[in-house]
Structure formats: structure tokens, C-alpha cells
Amino acid sequence: MRKVAIIGIGQTPVAEHWEKSLLLLAGEAVFAALSDANTPTVDALYVGNMLSGLLERQEHIGAWIADWVGLRGIEAFKVEAACASGAAAFRMGVMAVASGEINSAVVMGAEKMTDSHPDDTTAALATAADADYEVIHGLSFISLNALIMRRYLHEYGWQHADFAPFSINSHTNALSNPNARLHIPLNKEKYIKAPMVSDPINLMDSSAIGDGAAAVVIVPAEMLRGQQPIISVIGSGAATDTLAVHDRREPLWLSAAEKSAKQAYRQAGVGPKDLDLFELHDAFSIMAALSLEASGFAERGQGPRLGLEGEILIGGRIPITTRGGLKARGHPVGATGMYQIVEVVQQLRGQADGTQVAGAKIGMAQNIGGSGATILTHILESS
After folding, report:
1. 201-202 and 75-79 as β-strands: parallel, antiparallel, unpaired?
2. Which domains are present in the chain?
3. pLDDT tens digits, residue range 350-370?
């Protein structure tokens, strides 16, 4: 298998893009990535998307986008894995290039969420849960995560306020990201006083949905001999768990995160102590804690301690959500995994203005589908 490198990145701001369709947003990200890579064409297009059929009434979007961006004729597919669709598309692209079947690809994530009525968007998102045993009872993803967080507080003795550092950190970092949706400072007092959504999850525990697209161009690293820096994909892992939370042996443990992280670590020949940053999936603050634990950065039940002790900050032991994360950059679900990859590349290139992790060489991104049923972990290195 060949090593794969990222040579171009592109993204749109995450926002309520009333004036732009899903197609226009996707095109902007693809054109930006191709321009950054200084290449006019590629062999394949892989699109991460969750909701186009439900909210846009449009499927077959691989060919649709390929035609729009002037790549008619190439192979092009949509990849769906709920909120992990972006990272799933990235893994498909990496495997295709690594295998030698193709020599270049654009991998992107795109999602349009805000044109629909909020009730329709909530119902569409719920299709990533178990229809027969969760959704039928009226459970939304906020309520599922609230149940997980309530049990976590009970089992490990934390208070709700102990999760404030995760959200505060994300909002602080988003202030330096022009593509972030929420440029709003947050402190502990505002966090505690935020309106309750589904007890114990309040508004400041929850990520902001939005419209957006992010893309990368990938090629075999061997094509880049003599160039610097080369941003290589050195680890790629994927794993699944039960769709329904109640079917899991350990509802407070992201077993798919543990498995996919171990796969990525093994491929990369690194461990948690070697990473310079971690773009985790903070759809809700409880997921930030669980991801840190399952990925080897904290002992079981001790995830909040990393926030309370400042370890997750820029300059800390393991900086997370360095460009705002899902909480403040925004969470256009099918695109989120590709925003994470783009942001790790920015860090490894030294282009993360305002939140640059000094000397960053190795970064990890982890994208979660549903409440943990599909999780993909990727490790990138600058050399």
C-alpha cells in the first residue's frame, strides 16, 4: 500500500447560507482545494453527506457535484455514515489512492441543514439512531446524549459545571477562525446560566448545526519527493458499535473510538503521548470527555479533569478543537469530518492563525457517527 499525502485544502464558512445551495457550497470547497493543490483535475471524487436525500430531496450527489465542478466522467460517489460521513469518505479516498487503483482524488464533505424547518432537521438527524428501539420512543440525539451524560455524572461523581472548560475552549478558539459559525466568547458563568435543552445538557453543551463544505486533494506521497512540508496520512482506523445505546455492554465507553484509535496508532507507530493536537467530535460536551478517555488521553471517568487542569488548551498537553470544534466552528454533519481533516492540515502547515500549536508535527482527527455506532480516527504527519 502506498502512503497518501494531502496536497490541497478548501472550506467554506459554516453559516446559514440562505443564498447558496448544497451544490454551490460543495463547488466552492472543491475549487478551493484544487486551487490550493495547483491541479485542475483528479481521478475520483468522494463525497461525505448524511442528509441530502431527506432535506434536499437530492441523492446521487457524487455525479451531481462532479459535473458541477467540471470533473464530468470521473468516478464519484456519496459515502454515508451519519455524522461520520466526512471521515468515512476520507477513508474511502485514502484506501483508493493507497491501493494504486487511482492516483488522485478530491475528498469532501458537504451538508445543507438550515433551509429546512428545525423539526424536519431534528427528525432527519434521528435517522442515525435505532428507529425501532430509540426513535420510536421520541428520543432525539440531544436526549440520548443527555441520558449518557446523566449516567456519567452519577457513576463518576462529576458536576455539570465540570464540563464547562470543553465549551469555553471551543468558543475561545473559534474567535480566531474566520470559517467558524460562532464568534461568541464564553465563560463559566454564561455556561452555567445557559438554557437547559435536555437535562443535564444545556445550550452551551450542544454543537451548532450549519451549512458548509470542506475538501482535500490527495495523491501518493511518492509523487512529492523533494517537496516540503509533506502532509501524510500515517494512520486510518474505523470501527462500529451497536446503533442503540442500551445494547452496548458499556454505555459510558466509546468502544468504536478505542478500536479505531488503536488501529490508527498501530499503523502510524505512535501513541497518545506523541500527538500534538486532537480534533475530536464535541457534538456534545460529554462526547469530548468520552473521546479523550477512549483514545487514551485520560483514565476512564476522568475526561473532565483534562479540561479543568487546562490540558486541552493551546499550549496544553493535548490541545483539542483548535479551530472551534463542532461546538463553535459548527457541525454541518456530513461535512464535519472533513473540516476536522482540513483543520489538522492547517495546524501541520503552520497556518492556524491565532490558535497555532507551536511545532505541531502530528495531529489526530476523530469523527463520530450517531451516538458512537461508527467512529473513524485519522492521524496526519508533517515531514
Report:
1. unpaired
2. 4-117+208-382 (3.40.47.10)
3. 999 999 999 999 999 999 999
